[in-house]
Amino acid sequence: MTDSKYFTTTKKGEIFELKSELNSEKKEKKREAVKKVIASMTVGKDVSALFPDVVNCMQTDNLELKKLVYLYLMNYAKSQPDMAIMAVNTFVKDCEDPNPLIRALAVRTMGCIRVDKITEYLCEPLRKCLKDEDPYVRKTAAVCVAKLHDINASLVEDQGFLDQLKELLSDSNPMVVANAVAALSEINEASSSGVPLVEMNTQTINKLLTALNECTEWGQVFILDSISNYSPKDEREAQSICERITPRLAHANAAVVLSAVKVLMKLMEMMAPDADFVVNLSKKLAPPLVTLLSSEPEVQYVALRNINLIVQKRPDILKNEMKVFFVKYNDPIYVKLEKLDIMIRLANQSNIAQVLSELKEYATEVDVDFVRKAVRAIGRCAIKVEPSAERCVSTLLDLIQTKVNYVVQEAIVVIKDIFRKYPNRYESIISTLCENLDTLDEPEARGSMIWIIGEYAERIDNADELLESFLEGFQDESTQVQLQLLTAIVKLFLKRPADTQELVQQVLTLATQDSDNPDLRDRGFIYWRLLSTDPAAAREVVLADKPLISEETDLLEPSLLDELVCHIASLASVYHKPPSAFVEGRGLGSSRRALPTRSGSQDILESSPSHGERSGVIPTQESLIGDLLTMDLGGPPVASSVPAAPFASSGLDLLSGGLDGLLSDSPSVPPQQAAATAAPSVGLLGDIFGLAPSASASYIAPKQMWLPAARGKGLEITGTFSRRNGQIQMEMTMTNRAMQPMIQFAVQLNKNSFGLVPAAPLHVVSPLAPNQSYEAVLLLNPTGPVQRMEPLTNLQVAIKNNIDVFYFAVVMPMNVFFAEDGQMDKRVFLSTWKDIPAANEVQYTINNVNLSADAVSSKMQQNNLNASVERRKEKNKNLSPKMVCVNLPGADPMRLRTLRIYRRYAGVDGSILRSKIRCHCNLSPWKNRT
Amino acid sequence: MIGGLFIYNHKGEVLISRVYRDDIGRNAVDAFRVNVIHARQQVRSPVTNIARTSFFHVKRANIWVAAVTKQNVNASMVFEFLLKVTDCMQSYFGKVSEENIKNNFVLIYELLDEILDFGYPQNTDTGVLKTFITQQGIRTQTKEEQAQITSQVTGQIGWRREGIKYRRNELFLDVLEYVNLLMSPQGQVLSAHVAGKVVMKSYLSGMPECKFGINDKIIMEAKGKPTADESAARTGKTAIVIDDCQFHQCVKLSKFETEHSISFIPPDGEFELMRYRTTKDISLPFRVIPLVREVGRTKMEVKVVVKSNFKPSLLAQKIEIRIPTPLNTSGVQLLCMKGKAKYKASENAIVWKIKRMGGMKESQLSAEIELLQTDTKKKWTRPPISMNFEVPFAPSGFKVRYLKVFEPKLNYSDHDVIKWVRYIGRSGLYETRC
């Protein structure tokens, strides 16, 4: 019997025919008809019209037929929810069937039917099946809980299925445990609150590790993946988990091996890098990784992408395994390209000879991409391993002699990099390069060649002729080439002014007058002006020493690498992108993973408890903003998270947020949450009151992530502001997350609303070694030039080190500006209060303030909020009888004579504090300056 | 997890489509066809991301098997699973071809329903699956039989059923090794390794516990056996260094890790007990020495010498040497001392076949290749000369030391089991650059 005939029926009137066949009395005919329906469904035909007829076939004791009908149901139930209800009875009945295979089938299929009405009926059978005596039914029911959660999460929580699922973790059958753990992991990940619904603890992990030895290969993958999300409480626990997982490295299934590698890589982070345990474990990791390279090409590809990460994170593991990454003639192209990448990463002085001869071999292959990459790799070897540079260059020259167009172009691009790395060493080859000028047609190659000519213009006799030849088609070149040509000709002119004046005139005219490209035009004008005003300065600018290019290219950002290591074996590790970059939707906040840290290196974490668990993660824009940022109403970064409310003056919005940090309910509230609350005013004063330990000093906000390592090329800065001894201080923790030491730190502040400038240069221990942290304190004086910022407390900071200059903006907490001498007479206060229009008033209510009015007053005093308590009878008896008047003289009177903030507390009543603020702000000084 | 699984023919027509998750729509089927199967370019990656949906595919013969997901799944698991799916289909109905898939689509749907639940792979062992997915409708099973099936699908020993009986307890061990070599034209070994596997056919009654002993250096030292040097002095045979080994899921891995012993309850019938890899002290059975001379623009001379390098008493079989020729070859004159050589224009290669060759022998082939004059600048890239062969020994030096069988419940002992061992060395990628 051949079933393929069902695929070929395409005649008209088919549906009608099928309908009658489905209703036929003969069982055989019925079955045939259902098969035809499924075949049509497979090729994409719409057979939903047959729904009632197919469902009618459901009541059968033929298992094969039943499965086909179920398949149909799963596909079409959603489009015919009312009809689907007809099937419920059969499902419920099947869930009671004596045959466990049928019970499981029913509960499995029911979970796949996403119709609300059916879901209601699913709960009872599912509850029974979770306790079924047969493990096959239990393991199916476990997955069904995840299905149900996907349809209706709250139902799962309300019906207590989570607890039942947790109980299954202790099931005697390993496959039930594995499926339960898979379902739990999925539910955790999907949890909308970002908080896992089920926490792992030592006990559950132990149960899982026991089940690991006995379950199927897939079950082992589920268990290992879920263990990888668990952070052991100390190093000893981590070691014991490692010991129990290591045997999995010998499993025949690559997924088991890679998942085990993931757990081990993650836990190794918790141990000292030179501990014997880690060294031994590293040795054990290499052989299984190499073995993965003899599996099917697709698995090899995944393995290679992961090895690429592992080699970056722990170069030692595979340092002696260069040979296994040699490309085989018959490897698929994607395997070849990946192997090449890893070869370069592993290249070092001892193996460079071998690597080079291989690369040379590859450069003569057929696939263009591969050849190009091989040529580029030769250049990278030259830059990475200095003693080999000579050989690399000669190899590249050999390749240029082949005259294969794309090889030549690629070679010229990398030779440019070699010239940058080793200036004045290989100029002798320039003449060879020049021979190939006319074959270059790609912008990058042309640009590189022009750069070389410009850089060595004084040694190339006919440099002017060569550049002139490029100039002829100036308009048709790509921007990249145009820019290069402009710079090169200016270089040439500065080196040989006598005979190239005409040429430089020509290019400047072309760039400034005939081009629409602003980059090109601006560069042209700058050169022109430089040359015409001060040729000596032009020399200094254009012919300046260039910074060295780094040895390692294409490295992933350390923080991204750390995150990806937590995702070994998964798609993220294949794409080399964090999951948020390609996965949509639910609960992403919780799925961010970070490597655990060693207990010794926790100093950073302690100072910033709120981001301890995501230290390895690039923070979102919001976390930069800190808990004070609710004020940043118009600012783009938080625009979405803050309700736009009308404010009478800028002084007001300054306040509404400025005090929020100091007042928000608890210091550990994540900034996003504080910012997201609909009324930013609710959290007023909370921090002051909540912050018992620092009662004697003024409030200091917890450190915020100012510059994540990913943006700072490895430099990570967390910081806060404080006011000590009447001076504003910027306190920063600088951490080097890069691989090389950092030196030459300097800081600069942009002009700002309060005229803050550093009182002393920034002092940072130098060099800042990799993974070292330093606490830097910078005193700020309000003596600099003033420029109004939006919001007022915004401060733009530039930090420089030997790597680059980094810019970031921070928002300063309002309280650091409050001067100590702001005391004011009560009457003056009251009259000023009245002067300010009522429109400038904002009211706040804070709950859960368990302090008396006096205590509030003294708290505020510590923060230079001069409060005076006034008792007065209220007309409105609903309000509390106590009245606190606070006056907040404006920030640093020296600079901002006209900003005045006034605040009046309407009362402290049990646990509720209501407050009114009026604010007055004279903007004249800023107007004058801008 | 896996959101859907599709099978296409070479034209991109859907043969099987099964969706497991709500986030995968019907349009995913078309997206893969348009962007991958019908793409003009050669496939650059087995993983493709189209509009935030990831597609994994394996292509076997003319059939594309693709898994789809929108989540951050375990990629190695998805590929291993797809490979298992093809294995599984193969063991049910033979070759995975369009015709066979269409003929068995009901079966395939039934299998897919069983082995993948909500995108989570379940038991994929074909031996077990065949006990209850039979395509014969519902069989009247007794309650015991049903319980046995389910406990086997989910059980700790999911790969063997109880109550197996044989009149003659017998087992066969095949040590199969693939020698991989990449040699430079000058005869320098660029890389060489042996990928070996031990395939076992067991026809044993009951639930036998087996213990397997090999001459792995670490295992022997752990066992307190005389160290390699001593035993080498005595028996003339050394222990070998196994770089890495992997076992069938029946082997107790934790026991291997702690006690270095390989113990297991074998599945019934044929299975792959272990895989291993060695790189040290490989005895390369053959050496190929190429000599290529380009005489002017239209002529090339090729001389290839092949030397066998093993005990003279042994015989290698099925020797085939493939010498690539340039694309513009117009004619070839061949002369060989042994075997038959032929120029195959369609394959752009000279194929030299030798049926049998003893150890420590040497043979030679010389060829004159005439070339057409071409004006393309592109140089011929000279692919490597590859070789195939089969030898009756294990090139890595791998030896089975013992295989002991214990069945406490039935009354047969280790001595009653008839055991057979065979060693085969084959060529993997055995290439010499020229």
From TrEMBL, chain A:
Gene Ontology BP term (one): intracellular protein transport
GO cellular component, one term: clathrin adaptor complex
Membrane topology label: Peripheral membrane protein
Top-level taxon: Eukaryota
Keywords noted in UniProt: Membrane, Protein transport, Transport
Residue ranges of every copy of the Beta-adaptin appendage C-terminal subdomain domain listed in the record: 818-907
Limits of the Clathrin adaptor alpha/beta/gamma-adaptin appendage Ig-like subdomain domain: 699-809
Chain positions covered by the region annotation Disordered: 586-617
Keyword Translocase (UniProt): no
Bias (Polar residues) ranges: 598-610
SMART domains: Alpha_adaptinC2, B2-adapt-app_C
PANTHER family, per the entry: ADAPTOR COMPLEX SUBUNIT BETA FAMILY MEMBER
Protein family: Belongs to the adaptor complexes large subunit family.
Name the record gives this protein: AP complex subunit beta
Organism from which the protein derives: Daphnia pulex (Water flea)
Automatic annotation (TrEMBL), chain B:
Cell compartments where the protein resides: Cell membrane; Membrane, Coated pit
A single GO BP: intracellular protein transport
A Pfam match: Clat_adaptor_s
Top-rank lineage group of the source organism: Eukaryota
Xref: PROSITE patterns: CLAT_ADAPTOR_M_1, CLAT_ADAPTOR_M_2, MHD
Domain MHD per the UniProt entry, residue ranges: 168-433
Membrane topology: Peripheral membrane protein
GO CC annotation: AP-2 adaptor complex; cytoplasmic vesicle
Residues that, per the record, bind a 1,2-diacyl-sn-glycero-3-phospho-(1D-myo-inositol-3,4,5-trisphosphate): 340, 342, 344, 353, 355
SUPFAM superfamilies found in the cross-reference section: Second domain of Mu2 adaptin subunit (ap50) of ap2 adaptor, SNARE-like
InterPro entries xref list: Adaptor_comp_med_subunit, AP2_Mu_C_sf, AP2_Mu_N, AP_mu_sigma_su, Clathrin_mu, Clathrin_mu_CS, Longin-like_dom_sf, MHD
GO molecular function: clathrin adaptor activity; lipid binding
Keywords: Cell membrane, Coated pit, Endocytosis, Lipid-binding, Membrane, Protein transport, Transport
Family affiliation: Belongs to the adaptor complexes medium subunit family.
Protein name: MHD domain-containing protein
